[in-house]
Amino acid sequence: MARATSAVARNKHRKEILKRTKGFMWGRKNKERQAKIALYKGGEFAFAHRKKKKNDFRRLWIVRINAATRALGFGSYSKLINTLTKKEIELDRKVLATLAKDKPEIFERFIKEIS
């Protein structure tokens, strides 16, 4: 009976792992055990930070809206959101932040309309 080895499959698997860790630093790019660990942890971080990115952007939008409303003399971010809620205006933070940053004249007119 012929001797069965898994050499071809094993080498293919190893090459695939090392190909995916190209660009990593130190032993994580060329040592199989470290590369496997780096890939596993990298995948975990990527998953977690895809969720975290949404929170980061929300915080950024709030800062931009707050800065723009204070510059126009309307008050704070919370006063703006409270006014929008009372007047039942449903604009999300992303839109408000984009207006405040890219089209300040439109944002200023909007603030004057609601106040």
Keywords:
115 residues; mainly alpha; c-terminal domain of poly(a) binding protein; 5 helices; 0% strand
Can you describe this structure?
With 115 residues, this protein is an all-alpha fold. It has one domain (8-114): c-terminal domain of poly(a) binding protein (Orthogonal Bundle). The chain is built from 5 helices and no strands. The chain has helices at residues 7-20, 32-71, 77-86, 93-102, 104-114. α1 (7-20) runs parallel beside α2 and α2 packs across α4 (93-102). The mean pLDDT is 95.
Quick overview of this protein structure:
It is built from five helices and no strands. It has 115 residues and is mainly α.
* Record field, number of beta strands: 0
- Into which percent range does the helicity of residues fall? over 70%
State the helix count: 5
List the helices and strands in order.
HHHHH
* CATH class category: Mainly Alpha
Biggest sheet overview: none
Low-pLDDT runs of 5+ residues are: none
CATH architectural arrangement: Orthogonal Bundle
Could you report the average pLDDT, rounded to the nearest whole number? 95
Q: Spell out the CATH superfamily.
A: Ribosomal protein L20, C-terminal domain
Q: Which percent band covers the strand fraction?
A: under 5%
In terms of quaternary structure, the protein is single chain
Which structural class fits the helix and strand makeup?
mainly alpha
